C-alpha cells in the first residue's frame, strides 16, 4: 500500500489538471444542461397549453354555466340513426338553460377565426349523415335543455303551445291533448325533437292540407352563431325567423318554439287500398289532396316483389271482404298502396264518419278486394311507427345503417321517375318501405330556407332502407348506397328537377346546385347570423376557416 500511496502523492499538479476538468468548466456544463432542460420543459408546457386551448378546450371548463360539460364520455354524440358516420366531439354540453347555450357559442365566437371549435345541436340523434355531429367541437345535447314548462296559450285569433326546442313531439302531443288540442302537422315518427324537425321541414300525410311543420310555427327563440338570443316571428326579426325554418341549423339553434294548435279528434278510421296502375294511383292521390272535404291524412307506398302482404295487414286491419282478400294475388306485379285516415270523435261522429268514408272511397278505382280498414285512437295512429321501432330495438335491428334517400319530385315528372326506378333500379322493397305521396306547394312558405320543386304539386318519395351488417347481398350497405347513387344519377340525367329532402352533399358545387337561385340568399344569411361558420358543421355546407399555423 505504501508504494502506491507514495506514487499518488508524488503526482504533479500538472498531471492532476490533465486528469480532472477545472471547476469552472463543470459549472458551465451544468448551466448549459439546466438551460436546455428549462427550454424543453417550457416548450412542453407551451405545446400542452396550445392543445388545451384548441383541440381540448380548456377554456370551456372555465365557463360559469348552470348545466355542465362532458369531456370524457362523448361516444354517444358521435352516433346517429344513420349509423354510418362517427365524428367524436371534444365536449358535450348538457345545458340546463338557454343562457348556457348562448354563453358557450358567444365564448367560441369571441375566440375568433383562430379557433377551430364548432358547435352542433343534437336532438334525439335521428340524423342520417352525421349532421348533428361536430368533429373535435362541441355537441349540445338539446334534450337536456330545461326551461319553462310546456304551456298552451289562447290568443284571440289562434292557439299555440310554447315548448323547448329539445322537446319530443310525442310529449307535445300528450300535453296538448290535455286541453283537447293538437298540433296541425306531423312527421311519421314522433320521437324527434322540435328543433330537429323545424330545421328541416317536418313532412307527413297532413302536409297536403296544413303544409309542413315549418308552416305551423308562430314564434321562435333562437341562439345565433354569434351567441345572441333572439325572439323572432313573422312580425319580429322575420328574416332570422324564415332563415332558421328549414335552414339545416346553419343560422341558429332553435331553443323554444310556439306551435300552432287546432281541436283534436279522438279516433281515426285508418284505411289501405291497393292499385296495379301507377297512373290511376297518382291521379287519385292528386284528386284527394285537391278537395276540401277529403281525408285528413293521405300517403302511399310502393310494393315490389313482396308476397303475403295482405296477410301481414290483418294484424292491424280488417279486410272488408275477407274471402276476396284471401284470394288476392299480386302475380309478381308492382303494387301501389294508398294509405288514408279520417279523424272523428268517438260516440259523436261514428255514423257520419262511416258515410263520409264510404262516399270518398266510392270516387276511387282501387282493387276492391284490397280494402282494409282499422279503427284506432288518435294517439295510436300518430305514434304508429313507434310500435315497429320498439320491435326492431328488441331484436337489435334498430341500430343498423340506415342509408335513407328522400326526394321531392315535380308532379309532371313523377311517372317518368317511377318508370325509371320502380322495377328497374329498385328490384324489391324488402329492405324498408318506399313512401310516395303528393303535397301542395301553396301550403309551403317560400320565405323559408327549405328547397322544393317549382311546380304547384310535387311528390315526396322516400326510400327508407335498412342495411344488414356484414351482408354481401342486396341488403348490404354497399348495394343500397350504389342503388341510391343510380337513382340520383337517373334524376340528374333525365333532368327531372328533383330536390333532396334531408339533403346530403359533400362539395360546395353540389350545395350550390341544390339551392340554385337561393344560394346567394343562403350565403348572405350565413354571413349575417353565423359569419364564422360555427354552427352545424356536420351539414358540410360551410367550413370554418382553419387557424394559421
From TrEMBL:
Obligatory cofactor(s): FAD
Pfam family, one: Cytokin-bind
Domain of life: Eukaryota
The reaction(s) this protein catalyses: N(6)-dimethylallyladenine + A + H2O = 3-methyl-2-butenal + adenine + AH2
Keywords: FAD, Flavoprotein, Glycoprotein, Membrane, Oxidoreductase, Signal, Transmembrane, Transmembrane helix
PROSITE patterns: FAD_PCMH, OX2_COVAL_FAD
Any GO MF annotation of the entry: cytokinin dehydrogenase activity
Name by which UniProt lists this protein: cytokinin dehydrogenase
Organism: Cucurbita moschata (Winter crookneck squash)
Amino acid at each position: 500500500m505504501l508504494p502506491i500511496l507514495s506514487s499518488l502523492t508524488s503526482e504533479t499538479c500538472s498531471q492532476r489538471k490533465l486528469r480532472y476538468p477545472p471547476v469552472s468548466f463543470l459549472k458551465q456544463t451544468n448551466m448549459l444542461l439546466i438551460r436546455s432542460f428549462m427550454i424543453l420543459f417550457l416548450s412542453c408546457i407551451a405545446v400542452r397549453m396550445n392543445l388545451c386551448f384548441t383541440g381540448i378546450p380548456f377554456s370551456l371548463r372555465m365557463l360559469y354555466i348552470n348545466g355542465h360539460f362532458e369531456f370524457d364520455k362523448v361516444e354517444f354524440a358521435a352516433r346517429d340513426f344513420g349509423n354510418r358516420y362517427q365524428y367524436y366531439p371534444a365536449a358535450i354540453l348538457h345545458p340546463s338553460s338557454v343562457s348556457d347555450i348562448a354563453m358557450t357559442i358567444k365564448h367560441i365566437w369571441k375566440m375568433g377565426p383562430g379557433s377551430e371549435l364548432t358547435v352542433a345541436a343534437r336532438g334525439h340523434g335521428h340524423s342520417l349523415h352525421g349532421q348533428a355531429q361536430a368533429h373535435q367541437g362541441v355537441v349540445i345535447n338539446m334534450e337536456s335543455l330545461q326551461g319553462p314548462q310546456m304551456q298552451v296559450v289562447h290568443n284571440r285569433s289562434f292557439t299555440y303551445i310554447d315548448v323547448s326546442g329539445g322537446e319530443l313531439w310525442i310529449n307535445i302531443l300528450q300535453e296538448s291533448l290535455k286541453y283537447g288540442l293538437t298540433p296541425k302537422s306531423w312527421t311519421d315518427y314522433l320521437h324527434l325533437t322540435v328543433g330537429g324537425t323545424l330545421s328541416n321541414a317536418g313532412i307527413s300525410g297532413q302536409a297536403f292540407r296544413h303544409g309542413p311543420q315549418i308552416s305551423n310555427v308562430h314564434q321562435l327563440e333562437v341562439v345565433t352563431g354569434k351567441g345572441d338570443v333572439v325572439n323572432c316571428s313573422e312580425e319580429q326579426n322575420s328574416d332570422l325567423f324564415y332563415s332558421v325554418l328549414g335552414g339545416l341549423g346553419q343560422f341558429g339553434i332553435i331553443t323554444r318554439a310556439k306551435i300552432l294548435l287546432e281541436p283534436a279528434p279522438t279516433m281515426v278510421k285508418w284505411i289501405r287500398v291497393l292499385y296495379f296502375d301507377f297512373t290511376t294511383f297518382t291521379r287519385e292521390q292528386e284528386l284527394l289532396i285537391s278537395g276540401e272535404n277529403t281525408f285528413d291524412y293521405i300517403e302511399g307506398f310502393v310494393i315490389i316483389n313482396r308476397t303475403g302482404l295482405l296477410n301481414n295487414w290483418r294484424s292491424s286491419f280488417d279486410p272488408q271482404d275477407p274471402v276476396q282478400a284471401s284470394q288476392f294475388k299480386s302475380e309478381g306485379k308492382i303494387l301501389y298502396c294508398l294509405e288514408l285516415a279520417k279523424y272523428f270523435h268517438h260516440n259523436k261522429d261514428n255514423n257520419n264518419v262511416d258515410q263520409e268514408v264510404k262516399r270518398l272511397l266510392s270516387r276511387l278505382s282501387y282493387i276492391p278486394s284490397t280494402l282494409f280498414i282499422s279503427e284506432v285512437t288518435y294517439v295510436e295512429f300518430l305514434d304508429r311507427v313507434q310500435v315497429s321501432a320498439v320491435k326492431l330495438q328488441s331484436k337489435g335491428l334498430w341500430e343498423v345503417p340506415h342509408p335513407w334517400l328522400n326526394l321531392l319530385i315535380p308532379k309532371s315528372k313523377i311517372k317518368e321517375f317511377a318508370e325509371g326506378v320502380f322495377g328497374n333500379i329498385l328490384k324489391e322493397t324488402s329492405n324498408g318501405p318506399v313512401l310516395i305521396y303528393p303535397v301542395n306547394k301553396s301550403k309551403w312558405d317560400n320565405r323559408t330556407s327549405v328547397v322544393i320543386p317549382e311546380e304547384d304539386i310535387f311528390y315526396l318519395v322516400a326510400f327508407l332502407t335498412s342495411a344488414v351488417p356484414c351482408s354481401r347481398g342486396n341488403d348490404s350497405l354497399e348495394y343500397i348506397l350504389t342503388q341510391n347513387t343510380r337513382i340520383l344519377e337517373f334524376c340528374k340525367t333525365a333532368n327531372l328537377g328533383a330536390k333532396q329532402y334531408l339533403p346530403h352533399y359533400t362539395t360546395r358545387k353540389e350545395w350550390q346546385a341544390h339551392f340554385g337561385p337561393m344560394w346567394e340568399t343562403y350565403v348572405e344569411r350565413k354571413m349575417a347570423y353565423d359569419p364564422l361558420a360555427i354552427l352545424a358543421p356536420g351539414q358540410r355546407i360551410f367550413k370554418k376557416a382553419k387557424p394559421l399555423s
